[in-house]
Every structure is written in C-alpha cells, then in structure tokens.
Amino acid sequence: MKNLFRNRQILIFLYSIILLTALTTILCFFIWITPSNFSYIYNHPFDSYNSTLGFNHIYCINLPFRSDRQEKITKIAKFHNLDIDFIDAINFEDEKTLKNYLSDPIVSPRHKACYASHYRTYELVVSNNYQSALILEDDIDFEVDIKDFLNIVQPFLPDDWEMFYLGNCGVDTSNTIYYHGKVYGTDFVLAKSFSPACTHAYAVSLRGAQNLLKILVNISKPVDLALIDLIHTDKIFSLSLLPSIISQWKSYDNPSDVSPGTQGKLYNLKNSTLELVGYRRVS
Question: Which superkingdom does the taxonomy of this entry point to (predicted)?
C-alpha cells in the first residue's frame, strides 16, 4: 500500500513537471514568433486614447486672423476629446521677427514664415522638455477612428524615432517596414519615410526637436522639401504612416496662406471628422 501511494506521488510529480515544461515551451514559442510585438509594446507605453493621442503635447500652428480654421480645429478637438494648444503662426509681413531666422533669399516671405513657425514650435518642445509632441497646421481633418489606428501602430515606433508623419501629401513608402496590417479593413503601413511632402501633421520626439534646431537652418527651399533633404541624407530619422490619418482640408472657401491660389491634390480620408460634424467642401 505504501509503495502504491509513493508511486502515485511520483507520477503526479512527473506529470506536473511535464505540464510545466509544456506551458513554458508554448509561452516561449509565442514570444519567439512575435518578438517585435512584445518588445515594442513594453518599451513604448503610449496611451493613444488620452487627450494628446499618446504624445506629451499637441500644438496647432494658426494665424490669429484665421479664426475660421481655429473653429474647425476646436470642433475636431471636442469630437475626439483632445487638448490642442494653439500657437500663433508668424505672419509673412512680420519682417522684424523673420530676420531672426536665416534662409536663402530665394525663399519667399510666405515660405520663410511657415518655416519659422515650425522652427519656433521645436523650440517650445525643447524648452518644455516634452518627450514627444504632435505638430499640426490649421488646415486639417482627422480620421474618425484616429485613436484606434494609433493604438495599433504607435507601439511599433522604434526607440530612436525623431519624426513621425501621421499625414503627408504623397505616396511615401520605403522598403524599411515596421508595421504592415489591416485595421478596420484598411491596409496600413508604418515605414521609414522616403519623401513625405507637406508639414500639416507630424510628431517629433525630444531628440528629434533638438536635432532639427541644429540642422534645419538657413534653408533654401520650402520647409517640407528641406525636411525631405534631411531624411534622404539620414540626418533625421523619420517614419511615415500610410495611408494618412490626418489630411489637409482642401476647399475653395479655405484658401492656402502659404501658397495662395493653389488647391493641390485632394487626399480623402476613409471617414472625415469635419464632414461628420457638418462641414462640406466647396468645389
């Protein structure tokens, strides 16, 4: 009887060891087949559902007299429960302020003012010691499900990212892919930036803002093209999300302040926030 009891204990012990080994093997297997998921998720504590879309701060560059645009951004912020900090854009007629920013004489006053406004925003990021900040221009529209999209994509940003385009005016793809998958039926790609035209919606890390303050100086072309040059020469590490989840709101009753009289190509969102809250484009 004692031998039977002892044999039963030995069998239970052996089964426990086998079960523990099997569970450990299964766990290691899943970690092995999805290493990027685990490492990125634990290294990047983004909260995409908070009031700043997972970044430390959101800035919107806005000319004070464009109250029509500020009204649209305010409605976007209310719809998505966001805290957006409006900062005054530099007017192209403000020659005194523009003298503080070096650029080639071939750069028009309007483009120089755009550049100076972005440069001053980098200064704010650094002076406030924000680890990341989303920089918006005031002629934009948000994807309705932007928080859901960012919640899936943001964890895949590498530790050393410096810029992150949430929207641009081109098909900006490269062969260096960090995420590729379907979100609500839409095929999304997070990749190293190639030629992300326009500057209406991008984030910078603290390191990125510090770097831009050093290298984005004395420009000889519009700021979005100057940034592309830095990306092409690997002086700044930038990523882009495609398709865009923030696009420019192009309408004939919303003229460009930088390039008056131009309309440009229209990049539609899957679900427009501005259209949902009642705005319509004038064509």
Answer: Eukaryota
Chain segment 15-32, per-residue pLDDT in tens: 566 666 666 655 544 433
User: Using H for helix, E for strand and C for coil, what is the string for 25-79?
Assistant: HHHHHHHHHCHHHHHHHHHCCCCCCCCCCCCCEEEEEECCCCHHHHHHHHHHHHH
In sequence order, which residues have a C-beta less than 8 Å from that of residue 192 and are 6 or more positions away? 174, 176, 178, 237, 238, 239, 240
Average pLDDT, the chain: 84
Per residue in 105-120, is it b (16+ CB within 10 Å) or e — as a string?
Answer: eebeebbbbbbbbbbb
Per-residue pLDDT reduced to its tens digit, 172-229: 778 899 999 988 888 899 999 999 989 999 999 999 999 999 999 999 999 999 999 9
Q: How many CB atoms lie within 10 A of CB 262?
A: 9
**Phi and psi, residue 257, nearest 5°:** -85, -20
Separation of alpha carbons 159 and 153, rounded Å: 14
What is the identity of the amino acid at 171? Answer: V
Assess whether pLDDT exceeds 90 at residue 111. Answer: yes
Cβ-proximal residues to 130 (8 Å cutoff; 6+ apart), any chain: 55, 56, 57, 206, 209
The phi and psi torsions of 202 (rounded to 5 degrees) equal -150, 155
Q: Measured between alpha carbons, how far is 198 from 269 in angstroms, rounded to an integer?
A: 16
Residue from 141, 162, 154, 124 nearest 241 by CA: 154
The domain locations on the chain are 2-33, 43-276
Asked if CATH classification 3.30.565 holds for the domain at 43-276, the reply, yes or no, is no
Residue 237 pLDDT level (bands cut at 50, 70, 90)? very high
Instruction: Specify which residues 136 forms β-bridges with.
Output: 60, 201
